[in-house]
Amino acid sequence: MDKKVQEIYDQTQKIANQQYMGHRRVTIDPITRLEGHGKIDIFLNDQGDVDRAYLQIPELRGFEVFSRGRPAEDMPQITSRICGVCPTAHHMAAAKALDDLYQVECHPVGRKIRELVYNTFMLEDHALHVYILGGPDFIVGPDAPKELRNVIGVIGKVGLDVGKKVISTRRRLREIINYAGGKVIHPVLGLPGGVAKGIAPDQLPQFRQIAQEGLEFALFTLQVFKDIVLKNDAYVKLITSDAFTHKTYYMGLVDKDNRVNFYDGDVRVVTPEGKEYAKFPVQKYLEHINEHVEPWSYIKFPFLKKVGWKGFVEGADSGVYAVAPMARLNAAEGMATPEAQKARDEYFKILGGRPVHHTLANHYARVVEMIQAAETIVQLVNDPEITAKEFRTIPTKTPKSGVGVVEAPRGTLIHHYETDENGLMRMANLIVATVGNSARIAMSVDKAAKGLIKGGNVSEGLLNKVEMAFRAYDPCFGCATHTLPGEMPLIVTLRDLKGGVIREIRR
Amino acid sequence: MARAAGTVVLALGNDILGDDAVGFHAARSLRAEFSEGVDVVETGEAGLALLDHLEGYDRAIILDAIATGKCPAGSVLTWAREDFKDIVSPSPHFSGLPELIHLAERVGMHFPKDIRVLAMEVDNPTVFRESLTPEAQKALPELVARARRVLTQEWGHRSPNAPCTNKR
Predict the structure, then answer these.
(1) Which residue of B has its CA nearest to A64?
(2) Who among B46, B107, B127 is closest to A481 (CB)?
(3) Which among A284, A272, A256, A271 has a CA at the least distance from the CA of A405?
(4) Is residue B77 within 8 Å of residue B23, measured between CB atoms?
(5) Mean of all residue pLDDT scores within chain A
(6) Are A488 and B91 in contact (CB < 8 Å)?
(7) What is the pLDDT of residue A82?
(8) Residue of chain B whose alpha carbon sits nearest to that of A30
(9) Contact call for residues A82 and A90 (beta carbons, < 8 A)
(10) Which of B20, B48, B128 is nearest residue A62 as measured by Cβ atoms?
(11) What is the pLDDT, as a whole number, of residue B102?
């Protein structure tokens, strides 16, 4: 960011702060390690009804300045340290941005190794969400007593052996990632044009076994989801209820046949009716995506530039779009692997056809994606080329600008770098996955809050409903992940115009 | 899974977020002091990944940064395993220490019975920076000393390389 832009940005932030402080508002504030993260602000009008509710996602500052002047080759390592939740996604987006920066096609074997690692990461991360993070809402149940709405409740429902299986599968999958890329947080895998290390043939028997176990686990998870969630009419009713439904555009990466791809492809956008609206290589993202800034928020709200920003509203005239599992399935015409395709067809059949607009369907779509990731891993570890000794094309061109994209578990992740002729960073712009969903998350939180706050009275049921509204998106508060004392109680504070506390609800 | 060392010092943080890395700095001092019977590990991971780092040990010290906003920067706050009895709710993307402890117990994992969390209050761990602030730098010896006291006086570890002092 140049100096002038920075000044304007700072001024805007100052005005934003003043306006923010001048509002009458309710704050739902998780007591996290980093105060204020994942905070929900609910602005009340003079009648005490909800004017607008927002989820404040934490903003880490200074990355632009931090990266300036560093060798671009360091970016896969640096960006993988941004957050402890999805380091592999940042690492891979950065490696792909380097390919583009140095104008080098990734070596086909290097690409397969990258895809192996990436799909392994997707499977592991999705499995964690299904059982540990989202599981309490669906496997245990949204109405279960709060002391059971956690991982222990999940184990109580699915059985201890499954709990053990989740832990051991996760660990086994990490063996593949660690072998290929070194430490998860500081991976040394991606280099411009390929990868740093190949796969020794004697590793394959072990990897094939892990892959097979991973696939069986993914298919088992689908069965669990069907048995516990889909056979329960109340759950299905909740998923498809109006409170958790928004008709927006959807975005995701697709391969040449318009099938879901986590690692590569064109960015495809479909309309709220499910028709193709745009399909473009990620290098053209600035032609298609713009970011809206609200005076009250530090978060930016990406929207479709050519549709335009019409506010936090749904429909074909509003540029609001969604990313992440449900959006990916909507944006593609199919899955890339057979069992995932079957699961996907059933998913759309059960939920009333494509596109699906129900936010809570993200949990189901995540299970479908687990199957594709697992099947892709099986394919790759059985590919004779995966152990080839050549896995990198050495770049020879002068760097200037590069853009890389992957589908992170939480949605489309874009890295854009510009360097001088020596490959030293001049500019870095990251559109992270959670931010891609920020407008829709705000709409979901708003809908939940409006239904529960009337005339300044805050319903006791607010906390759970609002939490559920954003948990389905799996928003990543990466920097807040070591929360102490390890819990995330919520506080709703109802304030008057002067900021005085009228009432506080704690859980 | 049993480990050769019975004790682990596990530092959490992010080494490009300024004072968020204070636990790493403390860990490096302790690693130099305690060569036997204590494993010192630094990680930027969170949630379930921490099971891998804690499994197999009898005792654990967790070093971290914290921003409660209730204490001056540089204060060292402490918790013990008994403080993590209740799981309140799952957070949006997070499984915390209480969940890990319950999970480990439930699946019969060899998990530390004695856990101490030592966290330094920091002001602003949301700006990318590779160095500590002067406040954190100044308070770092206290964080190290607290960990050292637990390791030597409570858990009986020897620290042959500890700095020579008449105060511990």
Answers:
(1) B128
(2) B46
(3) A284
(4) no
(5) 84
(6) yes
(7) 79
(8) B91
(9) yes
(10) B128
(11) 82
Same domain? For A122 and A154 the reply is yes
Question: Residue A4: pLDDT band by 50, 70, 90 thresholds?
Answer: low
| pLDDT score of A476 | 64
CB contact under 8 A, B91 and A61: no
Structural domain count of chain A = 2
- Alpha-carbon span A38 to A43, nearest angstrom: 16
> Could you give the C-alpha distances from A4 to A7, A17, A83, in angstroms and in order?
5, 20, 29
Q: Hey, is the C-beta of A506 within 8 angstroms of any chain B C-beta?
A: no
Q: How confident is the model at residue A456 (pLDDT cuts 50, 70, 90)?
A: confident
Domain ranges of chain B: 7-154
Distance CA A433, CA A435 (A): 5
Over residues B106-146, the pLDDT tens digits come to 889 999 999 998 989 888 667 788 899 999 999 999 999 99
Spatial distance between the Cα atoms of A207 and B93, rounded to a whole number of angstroms: 28
Nearest to B99 among A147, A150, A467 (CB): A150
Q: What is the pLDDT of residue A471?
A: 74
Q: Is residue A111 part of a domain?
A: yes
Sequence-distant (≥ 6) Cβ neighbours of residue A242 within 8 angstroms: none
Query: What is the rounded CA–CA span in Å between residue A430 and residue A416?
Result: 6
pLDDT for res B118: 92
CA dist A139 and A163 (Å) reads: 13
Q: Amino acid letter at B47? A: G
Q: Structural domain of residue A494, as residue ranges? A: 3-59+443-472+490-506
Cα–Cα dist A430/A403, whole Å: 10
Residues A36 and A97 reside in one and the same domain: no
Residue A498: the pLDDT is 52
Whether A207 and A103 map to the same domain: the answer is yes
Task: Check whether residue A232 and residue A96 sit in a common domain.
Answer: yes
Q: Is the CB of residue B61 less than 8 Å from the CB of residue A440?
A: no
Average confidence (pLDDT) over A325-344: 98
Say how far apart CA A84 and CA B45 lie, in whole Å. Answer: 5
3-state DSSP helix/strand/coil % of chain B, to nearest 5: 35, 25, 45
The most confident of A59-63, A288-292, A471-475, A485-489, by mean pLDDT: A288-292
* Residue A36 identity: G
Query: Across the interface, do A484 and B97 touch by the CB < 8 Å criterion?
Result: yes
For domain B7-154, give the fold. Answer: Rossmann fold (3.40.50)
Q: Do residue A34 and residue A169 come from a single domain?
A: no
How many residues would you count in chain B?
168
**pLDDT tens, residue by residue, A130-163:** 888 777 777 887 777 767 777 778 888 888 998 8
What is the reported pTM? 0.88
- Residue A67 within any structural domain of the chain: no
Cα torsion at A191, A192, A195, A196 (round to 10°)? Answer: -40
